Amino acid sequence: MNEIVLECRDVGHWFGSNRVLNEINLQVAAGQIVALVGPSGCGKSTLLRAILGTHPPKQGDILANGRKVTRPNRDVGIVYQNYSLYDFLTARDNVAFGLMLDETSLLTRCLKPFEYRKLRNVHREKAMAYLEKVGLAKAAHLFPAEMSGGMRQRVAIAQALIMEPQILLLDEPFGALDEATREELQLMLLRLYQENREAKQAGVKPPYTILIVTHELNEAIYVSDRVLGLSQYHEGGEQGATIVYDKAAPVFHPGDARNFEEFERQKDELRNAVFDPEQNQHHAEYVAFWQNLK
Amino acid sequence: MLVGQPIPLTQRILLGATCILLLIGAYTIWSETLSYRKREEVANKLPPLKSELQTIEAQLASNPDDSDLVQAKQDLQDRISRVERDVLAAKDRRVPTWKTLYTDGLLRVTEGQGLKKNEYWLWEDSKATASRLISGMLAGVVLSLGLGILMGAYSPIEAFFLPTLSFLAKIPPTAMLVVFFILVGVGEDMYVTMIVFGMLPTLAIAVFQSAKKDVPESLIYKAYTLGGSDAELIWNVIFKQILPRMIDAVRLQLGPAMVLLVAAEWMVAGEGFGYRLRLFYQRTDMSVPYLYLMILGVAGLTMDYMLIFFRRYLCPWFGE
Description:
The complex is a heterodimer.
Chain A: E1 4-15, E2 18-29, E3 33-37, H1 44-52, E4 59-64, E5 67-68, E6 76-79, H2 91-103, H3 106-111, H4 113-133, H5 149-161, E7 167-171, H6 179-201, E8 210-213, H7 217-223, E9 226-231, E10 242-248, H8 264-275, H9 289-293
Parallel strand pairs in A: 3-8, 3-9, 6-7, 7-8
Antiparallel strand pairs in A: 1-2, 1-4, 4-5, 9-10
Helix pairs in contact in A: 2-4, 2-5, 4-5
Chain B: H1 9-43, H2 46-62, H3 67-89, H4 98-110, H5 121-153, H6 155-169, H7 173-184, H8 188-213, H9 217-225, H10 230-268, H11 273-282, H12 287-314
């Protein structure tokens, strides 16, 4: 049932003599929403860029859907913190952009303009469906410059989701948003997870696998079903950061109360295992996601 | 009034119109004053002639049959009427009045000239200059945009071309004219070559810098995750993203291209605006040059605004 869509095998990375990542071993199964937390400067971004394929690791392999990642490709989607969208496209066309790039090529668009036009209408309809999913159907005709930060981030998420990537990376996606917008978008992630569960119950592959990097522990525990801690504070710390925490997180339903007090026990555990510079003991007891599953 | 405080549109138009009217008024006063002085200068010849005429008339009164005196009077009267005609016709050619600009400028360039009255200067000059400018600009823009974008997209291409282009961009294009005259000759090809190479270094560098600076790498990486190919990245991401900035860069190159063209025409052409300007400069007659300068200004403004509208139409997302 647990189809592995992302795997890191002994991944290490360094800049000159500065070792950043060391012996990162990680498996993410389809349908998981994984939150990645860690102290600042621990290499979260380095790991993310390695998974994305823009800066492959100097050691070890990263496999997305069983294929080695050597450059950014359509198996791994990305949403950046600064909601990078294509300024020259409307919200709808931004979402449809990936379908156009993926399903047609420059040559076919030039040689068969009429077929492309038909296909483009199909793409646009599908894009509208995704915009509706993120609650932005009314803003379909707006350019990014005319949208607020929260709207742009939703478009960026729809733009990535429409490609149905094997795994979607969210790089501190809600960091620059106001509280209310952030909560709405967190709810949106919970609704996606809901769809995953329904798919699982129906016995099909869950559609959304997400790795979300965040510095907000509440958010990490709330939106995810699994929390990863990446930290340089462990016994081999001078060799670079590694995964020091890997446990399941409580699953919330979109309608549930946002009772963050329930999180305190897990937050304490995270602070102790991931964020405490004095913590140099063996971390194996915290990396227990797969054992616990069995 | 605060620094940076905007003003209403009516006020803006009023102020702009005032400046133009002041310019026109100052020119009118200047040209009329000069032409008045010129008339005075000619008219000053009249009083001595007239007193001479009075003397002759006095002599004629005493012996009316002296045929020499009659002849002298006739000659003097002819001279006086000639000078009177000259007074009316006197004009200053360095700062011609509006009337002179019309009669000696506009009428001359729009009516048939030459022995067979079949040379229409304005039409011939515009045709020559415009075709040189347009073909040169088109070729130059296409080459520069292509090179600039490729340099922005691929670092090896950048590394190969950038040092040379930076060096060439620092040589004044007008100084390079000598190279084009010698290597390409002085035919029509020369003008196109000259404009292309005159604008290429600067424009290609401007486009390259825009492709580097105005396309964040996150947009590039994201396009790969959306299944884009390298060609699609160049066309659908980089080109589309920097299109408005490229159009603005081309607008900035309009001025230098026209400078270069008029300078080259001044030196070697047999027709065109630069050629006609030189011709009238040699005659110290400014009635045609001033008219041509106005036409050049209006043409430049028109092209500039066409490019602005083009940008607004193609890139509605870019704003003003």
